[in-house]
Amino acid sequence: MAAEKVFVNGRIYTLDSAGTVAEAMAVEEGRITAVGSTQDIRALAGPGTQEIDLTGKPVIPGCIDTHCHLIMHGSACTRSADLTDCRSIRELQQRLRVHWAKNPNTKCIVGERFDHEIFGEGRWVTRQDLDEVTSEIPIVVARLCYHAVVANTATLTPSRDRLNDEQWETGKLTEDDVSLAWSQVPDCTPEELENAAIYAFNDARSAGITSVNTQIDSVEELELLRRLRDEGRLPVRVRFQWPYRLMGKLVEEGLKTTSGDDFLRVGAIKIFMDGSMGARTCAMCEEFTDEPGNRGNLFRSDDELAEMLVEVQRNGNQAAIHTIGDLAISTAIRGIEKAMPKGNTGNTHRHRLEHVAQMSPKILHDMARLNVMASVQPQFIVTDFWTHERVGPERYKFVYPFKSMLDAGIKFGMGSDCPVERLSTMELLHRAVNRDAMSQKECLTVEETLRAYTNGSAYICFEENDKGSLEVGKLADFVVLSEDPFTIDKSHLGKIRPVNTVLGGQMQ
Ligand SMILES: [Zn+2]
């Protein structure tokens, strides 16, 4: 029988284990049925076959973003003032005013993704700065890590008796306390939520991403994803990470990690061990170099984590554990080890650590020994330029040490943590390959990065049989690029554009 679709005349980097480079692929019902030369694949065509000419362009497997918050990203883009790259508190105030002028009927003003490290004033934005914009309706602005927010008087007044003096004075709330500010922001309406999701998923697809592990936080968001899947409106494949506190909801429905179909699947259960490097709330073994006396906060002990993991495992689930500081990471590893003995030898549940910023030789060794995997975000290397000051030169040698992780045999996938970072697959590639001047020893090659972003990501999601390389039987998810990442001068990697992101053989 003739092929349904053939893609010909490409330079297809299949990223299979042999590193095959092919020219053409045949696709049937969304999956690859043959890979080879243009001549061989054309031989499979018949009168009804659709032929797509890749015009000599390079092709890579679809990128799999293992950690992002896409509904949050979509709502920031469609509903909030974007504070990205604000160079001063004055500019931040101005953007909030412009946003308010465009949305005069809004009941509150939300600004997202400011970075106080780049403010010309050299300080945090305060409650008083926001009151200068307005003290009549609530204003909440979130730092790009979302582990810290600042709010105005109108936002904080209802919870004044729950705030300490410093919080009230500065308007700055961190970690769990941020909910006191968010509680004053009305929830998205169902329509806003849908717009946000569709916007963000399309944004991901345009960037060359075919599958995402997106964090969701409520039953409403889950229902929305299910509806979009049923209506055939998901432009990317979604695997959702689900909060531990709501695990019972999945159990009730008889669902566990990997339940679902090719478009919507249950992902890992999310557990937090610490905060962020930016807000100095991640848990460190030694104090921050630029804030003596502060070692951040560890949210739970290894025993407490192990108890949660036993529960996670009993329900057939994988855990995705947020760990940034070396104390959080080593405690999580011990927790995983303690939860392991019965039926999880070698980490068969594929528990993964999210972010793993501050590593150490011992952590590298233990992760490899216990087969603990990681989900990393190469874009942080450059954006979080201040990390060097936070941890000092000695510890900095083990910040996002991707090459050492690879050499140690640790399995990892890659993602953006969007909206913390942009949804840009080629920026991610550029940063993993080129890094910053102080960490050149940890640069990955183009192939190592793309393999982590495709094969590696698929593996930490239990999807290595369906995704991660272009081989017979796998989903026909791939990206056509403007230029060849394997031959371009590596300083130009970030300039490559995804020309088309193909999902199940469907062009975008
Ligand atoms: Zn995140």
Tags for this model:
508 residues, alpha/beta, Urease, subunit C, domain 1, Diaminopimelate Epimerase, Chain A, domain 1, TIM Barrel, five-stranded mixed sheet, 18 helices, binds zinc ion
The small molecules bound here are: zinc ion
Q: Total number of β-strand segments?
A: 22
The third-level CATH topology of the largest domain is TIM Barrel
Largest sheet: 8 strands, parallel
Please list the strands of the largest sheet in the order they lie side by side: 8-14-15-16-17-18-19-20
Number of helices: 18
* Terminus-to-terminus distance: 27 Å
CATH class of the largest domain: Alpha Beta
Spatial extent as radius of gyration: 23 Å
Tell me the domain tally: 3
Roughly what is the average pLDDT, rounded to an integer?
96
Shape: globular
Q: Which strand-content bin applies to the residues?
A: 15-25%
According to CATH, the homologous superfamily of the largest domain is Metal-dependent hydrolases
Low-pLDDT segments: none
Helicity range? 25-40%
| Class by SSE composition | alpha/beta
CATH architectural label of the largest domain: Alpha-Beta Barrel
